[in-house]
Amino acid sequence: VSRYGLGPHGGIVTSLNLFGTRFDQVRGCSYMILCWEAYVVIDTPGQIEVFTWSASGTIITEALASSFPSVVVYVVDTSRSTNPITFMSNMLYACSILYKTKLPFIVVMNKTDIIDHGFAVEWMQDFETFHDALNQETSYVSNLTCSMSLVLDEFYSSLKVVGVSAVLGTGLDDFFVQLSKAVDEYER
């Protein structure tokens, strides 16, 4: 990064661009892995904006989707999403990624060993419950969040949501069921 005078974001974008130029090699490795394993996971932790909205991220996503049944798994830290405004921010990210990639999509609410994800599912299913939680907030952002929650109702209706604990391994069976359904959706 310092060698080329790049900041952290410039370094990330440049790395992703270089990775994209060699992505045919990653795809080749993925074919070999799929001979032995059922799934290949490509993780982009903390790089949602760069990966989703950059040209190289789009190239990588489309290269994968044209080669394999591909599913986007958006992992949410449940313990950090108990605030309705933070929750809405996560759901807006999820919605934008779904519509950008146009791929089957699963939201995984992680860290259910710390806090159960039931509150989030309830917020998605019951507009009034979400608004009751939001009424505890008294900022301009809460008014904006209230308006946006009306828009996401259709998004929630078809969203696959799974609660898991990476520490305990709970919820993984349900995740793989949803993953199989998402693969079926991809193939349709």
UniProtKB/TrEMBL annotation:
One Gene Ontology cellular component: nucleus
Claim: Signal is one of the keywords in the record: no
GO MF entries: GTP binding; GTPase activity
Function noted in UniProt: Small GTPase required for proper nuclear import of RNA polymerase II (RNAPII). May act at an RNAP assembly step prior to nuclear import.
Assembly behavior: Binds to RNA polymerase II.
Protein name: GPN-loop GTPase
Family assignment from sequence similarity: Belongs to the GPN-loop GTPase family.
Compartmental location: Cytoplasm; Nucleus
Keywords, sorted A to Z: Cytoplasm, GTP-binding, Hydrolase, Nucleotide-binding
EC number: 3.6.5.-
UniProt lineage: Eukaryota, Metazoa, Chordata, Craniata, Vertebrata
